[in-house]
Amino acid sequence: MSRDGDSYAAPFKMISMLATQNRKRNAKRLATLKAIAEHEQSSDLEKLMTRRWAPGDVYAPHDLSPAEMKKWRVRVKPSRDAFDVLAINPIDEYKVTYFQFPCVVLVTAADRSTRDLAGTG
Predict the structure, then answer these.
(1) Which of 18, 23, 75, 107 is the most exposed place for a label (fewest CB within 10 A)?
(2) What is the pLDDT of residues 41-67, one digit of tens each?
(3) Contacts of residue 62, Cβ cutoff 8 Å, sequence gap at least 6
(4) pLDDT tens sequence across 86-113
(5) CB contact at 8 A, 72 and 51
(6) Residues with Cβ < 8 Å from 115, sequence gap 6 or more?
(7) Which residue has the higher pLDDT, 20 or 116?
């Protein structure tokens, strides 16, 4: 028979090995998440810099200001019209319709007749 110390050594060794693997795995996972966060932050900041700098370019601190960056921003014209893509007739989207127009005329006519009656017309 084996001694009492030997029978418990194997499970403890296995638990210790699994705990070490788990710590290594968590450390790798944390490093990966940190790298992804840094990449997202750098890509967000890169979008703000509209001017591309070449090696050897000389710049002043005010060249990095938002006003200077706005000068270098390139406007991209849309290749297709939004109304064509959505298949919407823009005339149908106006809020002033035929049914609202007579109400405006009636109010205006009533307003004029009131002014005429008061002698202010």
Answers:
(1) 75
(2) 988 888 777 788 889 988 888 888 888
(3) 68
(4) 999 988 887 765 555 555 444 455 555 5
(5) yes
(6) 121
(7) 20
Closest C-alpha among 41, 52, 107, 108 to residue 33 = 41
Compute how many other C-beta atoms are within 10 angstroms of the C-beta atom of residue 50. Answer: 14
Beta-carbon contacts of residue 83 (< 8 Å; ≥ 6 apart):
89, 90
Residue 52, CA distances (Å) to 40, 76, 88, 96, 114 in order = 19, 17, 39, 47, 67
User: 69 with 53: CB under 8 angstroms?
Assistant: no
- At residue 1, the pLDDT reads 47
Length of the chain measured in residues:
121
Q: Which amino acid is at 1?
A: M
* Single pTM value for the model: 0.36
